[in-house]
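Quick one: structure tokens for this chain, please?
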Amino acid sequence: MTFSILAIFTVQPEFIAQFRDALMKNASASQQEPGCISYIVHGDASASNIFFLYEKYQSKEDYEFHRTTSHLKEFREVMTPMLESDPVIYRGSEI
């Protein structure tokens, strides 16, 4: 059964370009992981400082592997001080 993530990030306006670069670097590495079906980055159409990700994995185990990767750990360290608030993250399986 596939496993999906929707993550929403609200970025402090002065960090938009830096955040976008870090997010795209993480996305590029994540797309190469075994079990990653898709890892798509979006920008909100009405607010330039809001980004969201749609991630889809072949299984929850593949997602759990993703959480252990060095590139995700690096992204978390870099992005955290750039955010206005904690990310909103939804996790689940297709119904």
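The domain at 3-92 is CATH 3.30.70.100 (Alpha-Beta Plaits).
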